[in-house]
Amino acid sequence: LFLPFLIGLVGLRNLGNTCFMNSILQCLSNTHDLRDYCLRNTHRTDLNNNCRAKAALMEEFAKLTQSLWTSSSSEAISPSDFKMQIQKYAPRFVGYNQQDAQEFLRFLLDGLHNEVNRVTVKPRSPMEDFDHVSDDEKGKRMWNKYLESEDSKVVDLFVGQLKSSLTCNECGFCSTVFDPFWDLSLPIAKTSGEVSLMDCLRLFTKEDVLDGNERPTCHRCKTRRKCTKKFTIQKFPKILVLHLKRFSECRVRTSKLSTFVNFPLKELDLREFASDNSVNAVYNLYAVSNHTGSSLGGHYTAYCRNPCVGEWYTYNDSRVSPMSSSQVRSSDAYVLFYESAASSRMKVIKILS
Ligand SMILES: *[C@@H]1O[C@H](CO)[C@@H](O)[C@H](O)[C@H]1NC(C)=O
Ligand SMILES: *[C@@H]1O[C@H](CO)[C@@H](O)[C@H](O)[C@H]1NC(C)=O
Ligand SMILES: [Zn+2]
Protein backbone atom coordinates (compact mmCIF):
# COMPACT_ATOMS: atom_id res chain seq x y z
CA LEU A 1 0.00 0.00 0.00
CA PHE A 2 1.39 3.36 -1.01
CA LEU A 3 0.23 6.47 0.81
CA PRO A 4 1.41 9.68 -0.85
CA PHE A 5 0.70 11.69 2.26
CA LEU A 6 2.68 11.15 5.44
CA ILE A 7 5.78 10.88 3.27
CA GLY A 8 5.72 14.43 2.01
CA LEU A 9 4.27 13.81 -1.44
CA VAL A 10 1.81 16.65 -1.14
CA GLY A 11 1.60 19.58 -3.54
CA LEU A 12 1.33 23.32 -2.94
CA ARG A 13 -1.41 25.41 -4.52
CA ASN A 14 -0.36 28.12 -6.92
CA LEU A 15 -1.68 31.42 -5.55
CA GLY A 16 -0.94 33.23 -8.83
CA ASN A 17 2.62 33.12 -10.19
CA THR A 18 3.88 31.60 -6.96
CA CYS A 19 5.52 28.59 -8.59
CA PHE A 20 8.99 30.07 -7.78
CA MET A 21 8.03 29.92 -4.09
CA ASN A 22 6.46 26.45 -4.29
CA SER A 23 9.51 25.08 -6.06
CA ILE A 24 11.89 26.29 -3.33
CA LEU A 25 9.55 25.27 -0.51
CA GLN A 26 9.47 21.71 -1.84
CA CYS A 27 13.27 21.62 -2.13
CA LEU A 28 13.54 22.79 1.49
CA SER A 29 10.83 20.41 2.66
CA ASN A 30 12.96 17.57 1.29
CA THR A 31 16.03 18.85 3.14
CA HIS A 32 16.10 16.11 5.73
CA ASP A 33 17.62 17.99 8.68
CA LEU A 34 15.59 21.14 8.15
CA ARG A 35 12.40 19.11 7.85
CA ASP A 36 13.13 17.29 11.12
CA TYR A 37 13.93 20.59 12.81
CA CYS A 38 10.39 21.70 11.90
CA LEU A 39 8.65 18.39 12.56
CA ARG A 40 10.17 18.12 16.04
CA ASN A 41 9.42 21.77 16.79
CA THR A 42 13.07 22.28 17.70
CA HIS A 43 12.80 25.77 16.26
CA ARG A 44 10.65 26.76 19.24
CA THR A 45 13.59 26.44 21.61
CA ASP A 46 15.71 28.57 19.29
CA LEU A 47 13.20 31.35 18.74
CA ASN A 48 14.67 34.68 19.61
CA ASN A 49 13.68 35.67 23.15
CA ASN A 50 10.54 33.65 22.53
CA CYS A 51 9.04 36.79 21.11
CA ARG A 52 6.34 35.42 18.83
CA ALA A 53 5.96 38.56 16.79
CA LYS A 54 9.60 38.24 15.78
CA ALA A 55 9.31 34.59 14.86
CA ALA A 56 6.26 34.55 12.65
CA LEU A 57 8.10 33.53 9.50
CA MET A 58 9.76 30.52 11.11
CA GLU A 59 6.46 29.54 12.71
CA GLU A 60 4.65 29.62 9.37
CA PHE A 61 7.48 27.82 7.61
CA ALA A 62 7.45 25.09 10.26
CA LYS A 63 3.65 24.85 10.10
CA LEU A 64 3.75 24.47 6.35
CA THR A 65 6.49 21.82 6.49
CA GLN A 66 4.49 19.97 9.15
CA SER A 67 1.39 20.11 6.96
CA LEU A 68 3.32 18.68 4.02
CA TRP A 69 4.51 15.74 6.10
CA THR A 70 1.55 15.07 8.37
CA SER A 71 -1.46 15.93 6.21
CA SER A 72 -4.05 13.18 6.28
CA SER A 73 -4.83 13.55 2.60
CA SER A 74 -2.90 14.04 -0.59
CA GLU A 75 -4.79 17.21 -1.43
CA ALA A 76 -2.59 20.22 -2.19
CA ILE A 77 -1.97 22.71 0.61
CA SER A 78 -2.29 26.46 0.33
CA PRO A 79 0.87 28.37 1.27
CA SER A 80 -1.06 31.65 1.74
CA ASP A 81 -0.31 32.09 5.48
CA PHE A 82 3.33 31.52 4.76
CA LYS A 83 3.22 34.00 1.88
CA MET A 84 1.77 36.64 4.20
CA GLN A 85 4.80 36.29 6.45
CA ILE A 86 7.46 36.23 3.77
CA GLN A 87 6.05 39.43 2.27
CA LYS A 88 6.08 41.07 5.69
CA TYR A 89 9.72 40.11 6.01
CA ALA A 90 10.60 41.03 2.42
CA PRO A 91 8.05 43.42 0.87
CA ARG A 92 9.36 42.65 -2.63
CA PHE A 93 7.29 39.46 -2.44
CA VAL A 94 4.02 41.36 -2.04
CA GLY A 95 1.68 40.69 -4.93
CA TYR A 96 1.75 38.01 -7.55
CA ASN A 97 4.66 38.76 -9.81
CA GLN A 98 6.96 36.09 -11.11
CA GLN A 99 10.14 36.16 -9.04
CA ASP A 100 13.54 34.59 -9.12
CA ALA A 101 13.65 31.33 -7.14
CA GLN A 102 17.25 31.75 -6.03
CA GLU A 103 16.64 35.27 -4.72
CA PHE A 104 13.61 33.98 -2.90
CA LEU A 105 15.70 31.21 -1.33
CA ARG A 106 18.26 33.78 -0.12
CA PHE A 107 15.58 35.95 1.48
CA LEU A 108 13.83 32.99 3.05
CA LEU A 109 16.96 31.44 4.58
CA ASP A 110 18.07 34.83 5.82
CA GLY A 111 14.67 35.46 7.41
CA LEU A 112 14.54 32.06 9.07
CA HIS A 113 18.09 32.43 10.32
CA ASN A 114 17.42 35.82 11.89
CA GLU A 115 14.51 34.44 13.84
CA VAL A 116 16.25 31.37 15.18
CA ASN A 117 19.68 32.93 15.63
CA ARG A 118 21.07 31.57 18.90
CA VAL A 119 22.88 34.88 19.34
CA THR A 120 20.55 37.50 20.70
CA VAL A 121 23.09 40.17 21.57
CA LYS A 122 25.74 40.56 18.91
CA PRO A 123 29.21 41.34 20.26
CA ARG A 124 30.75 44.61 19.20
CA SER A 125 34.32 43.47 19.13
CA PRO A 126 36.81 45.45 17.08
CA MET A 127 38.22 44.01 13.88
CA GLU A 128 41.08 41.76 14.89
CA ASP A 129 44.24 41.33 12.95
CA PHE A 130 44.82 37.67 12.15
CA ASP A 131 47.67 38.25 9.75
CA HIS A 132 50.34 36.73 12.00
CA VAL A 133 48.72 33.27 11.98
CA SER A 134 48.65 30.56 9.31
CA ASP A 135 45.92 30.70 6.65
CA ASP A 136 44.17 27.70 8.13
CA GLU A 137 44.16 29.19 11.59
CA LYS A 138 42.97 32.51 10.21
CA GLY A 139 40.10 30.72 8.45
CA LYS A 140 39.09 29.02 11.70
CA ARG A 141 39.24 32.23 13.70
CA MET A 142 37.23 34.11 11.10
CA TRP A 143 34.63 31.35 11.16
CA ASN A 144 34.40 31.47 14.96
CA LYS A 145 34.08 35.20 14.76
CA TYR A 146 31.18 34.78 12.33
CA LEU A 147 29.49 32.34 14.71
CA GLU A 148 29.76 34.88 17.52
CA SER A 149 27.03 36.84 15.79
CA GLU A 150 25.41 34.43 13.29
CA ASP A 151 24.71 31.00 14.69
CA SER A 152 21.58 29.00 13.89
CA LYS A 153 20.31 25.73 12.50
CA VAL A 154 20.23 27.43 9.11
CA VAL A 155 23.92 28.32 9.44
CA ASP A 156 24.72 24.77 10.67
CA LEU A 157 23.24 23.41 7.46
CA PHE A 158 23.76 25.87 4.63
CA VAL A 159 26.70 28.14 5.33
CA GLY A 160 30.24 27.43 4.17
CA GLN A 161 33.36 29.55 3.99
CA LEU A 162 35.14 30.82 0.93
CA LYS A 163 38.80 31.81 0.87
CA SER A 164 39.98 34.42 -1.56
CA SER A 165 43.71 34.78 -2.07
CA LEU A 166 45.15 37.92 -3.57
CA THR A 167 48.72 37.64 -4.86
CA CYS A 168 50.76 40.69 -5.80
CA ASN A 169 52.34 40.24 -9.23
CA GLU A 170 55.22 42.52 -8.22
CA CYS A 171 56.43 41.13 -4.86
CA GLY A 172 54.51 37.87 -4.59
CA PHE A 173 52.89 38.84 -1.28
CA CYS A 174 49.68 36.90 -0.73
CA SER A 175 46.84 38.19 1.41
CA THR A 176 43.79 36.14 2.23
CA VAL A 177 40.19 37.00 3.01
CA PHE A 178 37.61 34.56 4.37
CA ASP A 179 33.92 35.05 3.77
CA PRO A 180 30.88 32.97 4.61
CA PHE A 181 28.68 31.86 1.71
CA TRP A 182 25.06 30.67 1.68
CA ASP A 183 25.19 29.35 -1.86
CA LEU A 184 27.53 29.57 -4.83
CA SER A 185 26.43 31.36 -8.00
CA LEU A 186 28.23 29.65 -10.84
CA PRO A 187 28.88 31.21 -14.24
CA ILE A 188 28.10 29.06 -17.26
CA ALA A 189 30.76 28.97 -19.95
CA LYS A 190 29.55 30.17 -23.34
CA THR A 191 29.60 27.24 -25.69
CA SER A 192 27.41 25.68 -28.31
CA GLY A 193 27.50 22.26 -26.69
CA GLU A 194 26.99 21.05 -23.17
CA VAL A 195 29.17 21.91 -20.20
CA SER A 196 29.71 20.07 -16.95
CA LEU A 197 29.11 21.33 -13.44
CA MET A 198 32.86 20.91 -12.87
CA ASP A 199 33.48 23.32 -15.81
CA CYS A 200 31.24 25.87 -14.08
CA LEU A 201 33.06 25.41 -10.78
CA ARG A 202 36.42 25.74 -12.54
CA LEU A 203 35.25 28.95 -14.14
CA PHE A 204 34.07 30.22 -10.76
CA THR A 205 37.41 29.45 -9.09
CA LYS A 206 39.60 30.44 -12.04
CA GLU A 207 42.45 32.85 -11.35
CA ASP A 208 41.34 36.35 -12.09
CA VAL A 209 43.74 39.18 -12.91
CA LEU A 210 42.92 42.52 -11.30
CA ASP A 211 44.55 45.30 -13.28
CA GLY A 212 43.96 48.90 -14.32
CA ASN A 213 41.31 50.59 -12.20
CA GLU A 214 40.72 47.35 -10.32
CA ARG A 215 44.27 47.10 -8.97
CA PRO A 216 44.15 46.47 -5.21
CA THR A 217 46.62 47.84 -2.68
CA CYS A 218 49.41 45.39 -1.85
CA HIS A 219 50.13 45.39 1.89
CA ARG A 220 53.84 44.85 1.35
CA CYS A 221 54.42 47.24 -1.56
CA LYS A 222 52.04 49.75 0.09
CA THR A 223 50.79 50.78 -3.31
CA ARG A 224 48.25 49.61 -5.85
CA ARG A 225 49.52 46.66 -7.84
CA LYS A 226 48.35 44.26 -10.47
CA CYS A 227 47.22 41.17 -8.54
CA THR A 228 45.79 37.71 -9.19
CA LYS A 229 42.76 36.62 -7.23
CA LYS A 230 41.61 33.07 -6.67
CA PHE A 231 38.78 31.43 -4.73
CA THR A 232 39.00 28.14 -2.88
CA ILE A 233 36.48 26.55 -0.53
CA GLN A 234 37.79 26.67 3.02
CA LYS A 235 34.84 25.09 4.77
CA PHE A 236 32.26 22.92 3.03
CA PRO A 237 28.65 23.22 4.20
CA LYS A 238 26.44 20.19 4.91
CA ILE A 239 23.99 21.38 2.30
CA LEU A 240 25.60 22.91 -0.75
CA VAL A 241 23.32 25.07 -2.88
CA LEU A 242 24.62 25.68 -6.39
CA HIS A 243 22.92 28.35 -8.45
CA LEU A 244 23.51 28.23 -12.20
CA LYS A 245 23.67 31.79 -13.50
CA ARG A 246 21.29 31.34 -16.40
CA PHE A 247 19.99 34.88 -16.27
CA SER A 248 22.22 37.71 -17.27
CA GLU A 249 21.54 41.38 -17.11
CA CYS A 250 22.57 43.07 -20.35
CA ARG A 251 21.56 46.74 -20.53
CA VAL A 252 17.79 46.74 -20.06
CA ARG A 253 17.00 43.23 -21.08
CA THR A 254 17.61 40.10 -19.09
CA SER A 255 18.49 37.09 -21.16
CA LYS A 256 18.52 33.43 -20.32
CA LEU A 257 21.11 30.80 -21.15
CA SER A 258 19.64 27.39 -21.79
CA THR A 259 22.99 25.59 -21.94
CA PHE A 260 22.79 21.98 -20.85
CA VAL A 261 24.84 21.70 -17.67
CA ASN A 262 25.68 18.12 -16.91
CA PHE A 263 25.82 17.44 -13.18
CA PRO A 264 26.22 14.21 -11.22
CA LEU A 265 23.38 12.89 -9.06
CA LYS A 266 25.87 11.05 -6.91
CA GLU A 267 29.41 11.61 -5.72
CA LEU A 268 30.14 15.13 -6.81
CA ASP A 269 33.72 15.37 -5.57
CA LEU A 270 34.82 18.94 -4.89
CA ARG A 271 38.24 18.28 -3.41
CA GLU A 272 39.88 20.03 -6.35
CA PHE A 273 38.29 23.32 -5.17
CA ALA A 274 39.21 22.97 -1.51
CA SER A 275 41.85 25.14 0.19
CA ASP A 276 43.07 21.91 1.77
CA ASN A 277 42.93 19.01 -0.69
CA SER A 278 42.91 16.37 2.02
CA VAL A 279 39.37 17.15 3.13
CA ASN A 280 36.40 15.00 2.24
CA ALA A 281 34.10 16.97 -0.02
CA VAL A 282 31.73 14.52 -1.70
CA TYR A 283 28.10 15.42 -2.29
CA ASN A 284 24.89 13.74 -3.46
CA LEU A 285 22.06 15.59 -5.18
CA TYR A 286 18.63 15.58 -3.54
CA ALA A 287 16.68 18.47 -5.07
CA VAL A 288 16.57 20.71 -8.13
CA SER A 289 14.59 23.83 -8.85
CA ASN A 290 13.74 23.65 -12.55
CA HIS A 291 12.91 26.74 -14.62
CA THR A 292 11.41 26.56 -18.09
CA GLY A 293 10.64 29.49 -20.29
CA SER A 294 12.34 32.81 -20.87
CA SER A 295 13.44 35.56 -18.53
CA LEU A 296 10.13 37.32 -19.13
CA GLY A 297 7.97 34.51 -18.00
CA GLY A 298 8.25 30.88 -17.28
CA HIS A 299 7.41 28.17 -14.89
CA TYR A 300 9.22 26.65 -11.93
CA THR A 301 8.92 23.06 -10.78
CA ALA A 302 10.99 21.05 -8.31
CA TYR A 303 12.51 17.60 -8.51
CA CYS A 304 13.19 16.07 -5.15
CA ARG A 305 14.52 12.77 -3.97
CA ASN A 306 12.17 11.75 -1.23
CA PRO A 307 14.17 11.12 1.96
CA CYS A 308 11.81 8.30 3.03
CA VAL A 309 11.61 6.25 -0.14
CA GLY A 310 14.75 7.44 -1.93
CA GLU A 311 12.89 7.91 -5.24
CA TRP A 312 12.59 11.08 -7.32
CA TYR A 313 9.33 13.05 -7.66
CA THR A 314 8.30 16.11 -9.69
CA TYR A 315 6.52 18.85 -7.78
CA ASN A 316 4.53 20.97 -10.20
CA ASP A 317 2.55 23.24 -7.85
CA SER A 318 -0.37 21.10 -6.68
CA ARG A 319 0.69 18.02 -8.66
CA VAL A 320 3.24 15.54 -7.39
CA SER A 321 4.25 12.67 -9.62
CA PRO A 322 6.99 10.05 -9.71
CA MET A 323 9.79 10.57 -12.18
CA SER A 324 12.83 8.67 -13.32
CA SER A 325 16.19 9.81 -11.97
CA SER A 326 17.36 9.90 -15.61
CA GLN A 327 15.09 12.94 -16.19
CA VAL A 328 16.62 15.02 -13.41
CA ARG A 329 19.38 16.39 -15.61
CA SER A 330 18.07 18.91 -18.12
CA SER A 331 18.82 22.31 -19.52
CA ASP A 332 16.08 23.65 -17.21
CA ALA A 333 17.96 22.88 -13.98
CA TYR A 334 18.47 26.18 -12.17
CA VAL A 335 19.23 25.68 -8.47
CA LEU A 336 20.86 22.44 -7.31
CA PHE A 337 20.71 21.16 -3.74
CA TYR A 338 23.50 18.79 -2.73
CA GLU A 339 23.96 17.07 0.60
CA SER A 340 27.36 16.13 1.94
CA ALA A 341 27.84 12.37 1.60
CA ALA A 342 29.49 12.28 5.02
CA SER A 343 26.37 13.66 6.70
CA SER A 344 24.01 11.33 4.79
CA ARG A 345 26.17 8.35 5.87
CA MET A 346 25.90 9.50 9.48
CA LYS A 347 22.13 9.37 9.15
CA VAL A 348 22.14 5.79 7.90
CA ILE A 349 24.32 4.78 10.85
CA LYS A 350 21.91 6.54 13.22
CA ILE A 351 18.92 4.73 11.73
CA LEU A 352 20.69 1.35 11.83
CA SER A 353 21.93 1.66 15.39
C1 LIG B 1 11.12 21.39 -16.26
O1 LIG B 1 9.86 21.95 -16.01
C2 LIG B 1 9.14 22.33 -17.15
C3 LIG B 1 7.79 22.89 -16.74
O2 LIG B 1 7.83 23.53 -15.58
C4 LIG B 1 8.90 21.20 -18.09
O3 LIG B 1 8.28 21.63 -19.26
C5 LIG B 1 10.21 20.53 -18.39
O4 LIG B 1 9.94 19.38 -19.14
C6 LIG B 1 10.89 20.18 -17.11
N1 LIG B 1 12.10 19.50 -17.42
C7 LIG B 1 12.19 18.19 -17.38
C8 LIG B 1 13.49 17.61 -17.80
O5 LIG B 1 11.27 17.49 -17.00
C1 LIG C 1 2.72 21.47 -14.79
O1 LIG C 1 1.33 21.55 -14.75
C2 LIG C 1 0.74 22.33 -15.80
C3 LIG C 1 -0.74 22.36 -15.58
O2 LIG C 1 -1.07 22.81 -14.33
C4 LIG C 1 1.11 21.73 -17.14
O3 LIG C 1 0.61 22.56 -18.17
C5 LIG C 1 2.61 21.58 -17.26
O4 LIG C 1 2.93 20.91 -18.45
C6 LIG C 1 3.16 20.80 -16.09
N1 LIG C 1 4.59 20.75 -16.16
C7 LIG C 1 5.29 19.65 -15.85
C8 LIG C 1 6.75 19.73 -15.94
O5 LIG C 1 4.76 18.62 -15.48
ZN1 LIG D 1 53.43 43.66 -3.54
TrEMBL record:
The UniProt record lists the keyword Lipid metabolism: no
Protein name in the entry: Ubiquitin carboxyl-terminal hydrolase 2
Matches recorded under CDD domains: Peptidase_C19R
Gene: LOC107688622
Enzyme class: hydrolase
Entry's family note: Belongs to the peptidase C19 family. USP2 subfamily.
Endpoints of the signal sequence: 1-18
Keywords of the record: Biological rhythms, Cytoplasm, Hydrolase, Metal-binding, Protease, Signal, Thiol protease, Ubl conjugation pathway, Zinc
Cellular localisation: Cytoplasm, Perinuclear region
Limits of the USP domain: 10-341
GO cellular component entries: perinuclear region of cytoplasm
Enzyme Commission numbers on file: 3.4.19.12
Organism: Sinocyclocheilus anshuiensis
Upper lineage: Eukaryota, Metazoa, Chordata, Craniata, Vertebrata
InterPro entries hit by this protein: Papain-like_cys_pep_sf (IPR038765), Peptidase_C19_UCH (IPR001394), Ub_carboxyl-term_hydrolase (IPR050185), USP (IPR028889), USP_CS (IPR018200)
MF (Gene Ontology): cysteine-type deubiquitinase activity; metal ion binding
Main location: cytoplasm
One example of a Gene Ontology biological process annotation: rhythmic process
PANTHER family xrefs: UBIQUITIN CARBOXYL-TERMINAL HYDROLASE
Catalytic activity, reaction form: Thiol-dependent hydrolysis of ester, thioester, amide, peptide and isopeptide bonds formed by the C-terminal Gly of ubiquitin (a 76-residue protein attached to proteins as an intracellular targeting signal)
